[in-house]
Specification:
It is a single chain. This protein is an alpha+beta fold and 284 residues long. The chain has 12 helices and 6 strands. The protein has a 4-stranded antiparallel sheet. Strand 1, helix 8 and strand 2 form a beta-alpha-beta unit. Helix 3 packs antiparallel against helix 4. The longest helix is centred in the N-terminal third of the chain and has 28 residues. 31% of the residues are buried.
C-alpha cells in the first residue's frame, strides 16, 4: 500500500457510517506496523476527538497483535530466553519500550556481581553476594504498600522503581544468576513465588537437585524444604512435586500474565483483562 492510499484511508476513519469506518480500520490493520507512523501523524494534525479515538484504538490493536505474534513465536521456539518472554509481556502495556535499555540494566547488575565473584565460592556465598548487590547496592525491595498494582508485574517499572512483586523480583534475580552460571530457578509455589538453588549434577535425583530455596521478595532470604512444607500446611494445600522443583520459563510468563489479569480485574479494567486472557490462551 502506498503512502497516498494509506492517507486516503485514514481520512475515511472518521466516516459517520460506522460500518465504513470499521471496514477502513480492518484494511489499515492488515498492513500492521507500516501504517502506525502515518496514524500518529494524522492524530497530531487532527482536532476531531472521534477520529483521534479511532486512531488510538487502531494503533493499540496493531501493537497488541504484534505482542501476541511475538509471544506465540517465543513459546513455539521453546521459551528458552526468560528475559525476552518477560519483555514481551512488558510490551503489552508499553509498546514503545526500549528493550536494549532493559537488557543493559540487567547486564550492569550482572557485571557488578561478576566483578566480586570468586571461583571457589560456596552456593551460600554466591547467593549472599547477589543479595548484597541487588538489595544493598541497587536497593530492590518487595512492594508491600501497593502490592496489587499492575506496575509490579512490568519489568521496566520494577527496574525503574526498584520495587516489585514476588515473581518479578525473582525473575530479575534468576535471570542475572543464570547469566553468571549460578543455577537459580523459579519455583511456582501457590500464593507465592520463590527460587531454588540447584546442584546441576544431582538434577535427576531427589527434588531435582534443589539444595535450598531463596525468597527474592524478602531480600534473598535462604530457607529449606521444611519451610515450604509449613507454608503449604498453613494454606491447607497438599504437598506436590511442582511446589518444590523448578518450573519452566513458560510457566513463569503465564503467572506474570495471571498477576496482571488479577490487578486489572481489581481496577475494573475489563478490556485489559480480556486481552491478557487472550495472551494466556497462547500457552493452553
Amino acid at each position: 500500500m502506498d503512502v497516498k492510499e494509506i492517507e486516503a484511508l485514514i481520512k475515511l476513519l472518521d466516516d459517520p457510517d460506522t460500518e465504513i469506518a470499521s471496514h477502513v480500520e480492518d484494511r489499515l490493520f492488515t498492513h500492521g506496523n507500516e501504517v502506525i507512523s502515518h496514524l500518529e501523524n494524522a492524530w497530531e494534525q487532527s482536532f476531531d476527538s472521534v477520529l483521534q479515538q479511532r486512531i488510538e484504538n487502531l494503533i493499540h490493536r496493531i501493537q497488541f497483535q504484534n505482542v501476541k505474534n511475538d509471544l506465540q513465536l517465543w513459546q513455539l521456539s521453546g521459551a528458552f530466553d526468560l528475559l525476552q518472554g518477560v519483555i514481551l509481556v512488558n510490551k503489552y502495556h508499553y509498546p514503545d519500550l526500549d528493550e536494549q535499555k532493559l537488557i543493559n540494566q540487567i547486564e550492569d547488575m550482572k557485571r557488578e556481581i561478576w566483578l566480586q565473584l570468586v571461583y571457589d565460592m560456596s552456593a551460600i556465598e554466591k547467593v549472599k553476594l547477589i543479595n548484597h548487590v541487588l538489595y544493598n547496592i541497587y536497593g530492590f525491595s518487595g512492594n508491600t504498600t501497593n502490592h496489587q498494582d499492575a506496575k509490579n508485574s512490568y519489568l521496566s517499572q520494577v527496574l525503574e522503581t526498584r520495587k516489585g512483586n514476588q515473581i518479578l523480583l525473582a525473575t530479575i534475580y534468576s535471570v542475572i544468576a543464570q547469566k553468571l552460571d549460578i543455577p537459580v530457578y523459579g519455583v511456582n509455589l501457590p500464593q507465592h513465588f520463590i527460587l531454588a538453588y540447584v546442584d546441576e549434577s544431582q538434577k535427576d535425583n531427589f527434588e531435582n537437585g534443589v539444595i535450598f530455596y531463596i525468597n527474592a521478595f524478602n531480600r534473598g532470604f535462604i530457607f529449606g524444604r521444611r519451610d515450604v512444607d509449613s507454608f503449604l500446611k498453613q494454606l491447607n494445600i497438599a504437598p506436590d512435586r511442582q511446589f518444590y522443583e523448578p518450573c519452566s520459563n513458560s510457566a513463569i510468563v503465564q503467572r506474570i500474565i495471571r498477576n496482571l489479569i488479577s490487578a486489572y480485574e481489581k481496577s475494573g479494567s475489563q478490556e485489559q483483562v480480556r486481552e491478557l486472557e487472550e495472551l494466556l490462551e497462547i500457552f493452553l
